[in-house]
Amino acid sequence: MTHLRQRMQEDLRLRNFSERTIRHYTHTVAEFAKYFHRSPDQLGPEHVRTFLLYLLNERKLAWGTIQGARSALKFLYTRTMKQTWFDQEVIKPKVRRRLPTVWSREEGPSARFLPITLFFISLIYSMNFGISLLRAVTLI
Fold it and tell me: pLDDT digit string (tens) for 76-118?
């Protein structure tokens, strides 16, 4: 194990990262070094960008995996090697948020069942209230 990898694992343990995260970060950094056949301390922002594009375009990994790889490399450079991170060269991917599903009147719950639903909700509520009232009376 190289000195840099051991130092990174120690830094991750000091920050109380889980063993799974430590394995993932270590594997990502090892893969990064193997891709360029050089130590990460000899690589710069253009290498990080090229590696992330390799993961996206050639390996066709999911966005979550690429974000995890980016986080691993950022931790290596900022925490372990005490360098500044390359914010301009290595852009953080945009978070894709799913929009909620909006139902039309025809697709949504039918209005004709609303009074029945409200009746059963109030019935169940009153039954629970009655049971708790009986419990309170029997305890006195």
Answer: 999 999 988 877 667 776 777 888 777 676 666 665 566 777 7
Work out the angle at residue 128's Cα, subtended by the Cα atoms of residues 125 and 129, and round it to the nearest 5 degrees.
85
Residue 138: what are its φ and ψ, rounded to 5°?
-70, -25
Torsion of the alpha carbons at 54, 59, 63 and 69, rounded to the nearest 10: -60
CATH superfamily of 3-80: Tyrosine recombinase, N-terminal domain (1.10.150.130)
Residues 6+ apart with CB under 8 A from 44: 86
pTM of this structure? 0.66
* Cβ 10 vs Cβ 57: under 8 Å: no
- Please identify which residue in the block is written with the tokens 């629970």: 128
Q: Name the one residue in this structure whose structure tokens are 């066709």.
A: 60
Write the DSSP symbol of residue 42: G
pLDDT value of residue 74? 92
| pLDDT beyond 80 at 75 | yes
Give residue limits of the domains in the chain.
3-80, 109-140
What's the one-letter identity of residue 74? Answer: K
